[in-house]
Amino acid sequence: MPLVNPSAMLLAAREGKYCVGAFNMVDHLTLRAIIQAAEWKQAPVMIQTSSASVKDLGIPAIVAMTRQEAEDSPVPIALHLDHGTDPEVVRQAIREGYTAVMFDGSQYPFEENIARTRDVVQAAHAEGVAVEGEIGIVAGVEDDIVVRQDAAIYTTAEEAIEFQRRTGVDFLAAAIGTAHGFYRVEPRLDIDTLRQIAQAVPCPMVIHGGTGLPFEVVRQLVAAGGAKMNVSTQIKQTYIDSLYDYIQANRKQYNPIKLLTHARSALVEMIGQYMEVLGSAGKAGEGVSTSG
Question: Are the CB atoms for 86 and 95 separated by under 8 Å?
Fold first, then answer.
């Protein structure tokens, strides 16, 4: 089916108390693995691209390959720009076929973040594209994002409510103690604040930093109102580790197809497990709205 605007699938997740996985692709193999897992688990899914992937592949190529894979798939698939900090890149993604974009203005003062995010929302909505905003600052390292743990700023419920009301974002990421990349210390999660925000705002809530969280904690975050969870670093780890393991076990074989098939199978297994934990397995028919 055509790529979909994810707003309806995330609202369905919010109402159904499950969570849609948003997985970062880095190439065509990871794209196919994410979609294959979604088809296996009959789950709605969001394909995300980071700024590094955009620089490497280019927006036209990303849109073209994702559209082609989506057209051949029976499950709803959205294409989302993750952590867009350059307004021109965000606007190019809107123009060229992404069905959702994140404008990350969390580095700006509160009022400036609101003003910049509102401008993106107006431009995106005019093209039928959904927008994610962020309030507070999520710690960790992921591609071009580097934020020390002591520099993270937790979101308050009052700020989140005002931010969503004044910007009109379709879904909202709040800093509640999760982090990008692997956790080097045990995270201090403010799940109560997530629950308060989720109950107070009309839009779905986003959890960044899904990699490395124990699955029991993931379930708690979903129960507290998380409707979209980002998984990026785990994609990279599984990809690289599976390639390494295969080469170590088959050092004298020179068959790239077998090597890459092994990596894709490992990714499908891992992503499918996340979909089960998030509760999105079997939900592919809920909240489908086509776009693009």
Answer: no
Assess whether pLDDT exceeds 80 at residue 150: no
Name the CATH superfamily, with its identifier, for domain 7-278. Answer: Aldolase class I (3.20.20.70)
Judged by average pLDDT, the poorest of 103-107, 114-118, 210-214, 250-254 is: 210-214
The pTM assigned to this predicted structure is 0.90
With cut-offs at 50, 70 and 90, classify the pLDDT of residue 131. very high
- Catalytic one of 27, 72, 82, 143: 82
d(CA 153, CA 174): 10
Containing H/E element for 230? strand 226-231
The closest alpha carbon to 224, from 132, 136, 157, 138, belongs to 157
- Half-sphere exposure of residue 282, counting CA atoms within 13 Å on the CB side? 5
Residue 82: active-site member: yes
How do the domains of the chain map onto residue ranges? Answer: 7-278
The yes-or-no verdict on residue 178 having pLDDT over 80 is no
- Is 90 exceeded by the pLDDT of residue 148? no
**Nearest alpha carbon to residue 11 among 108, 91, 78:** 78
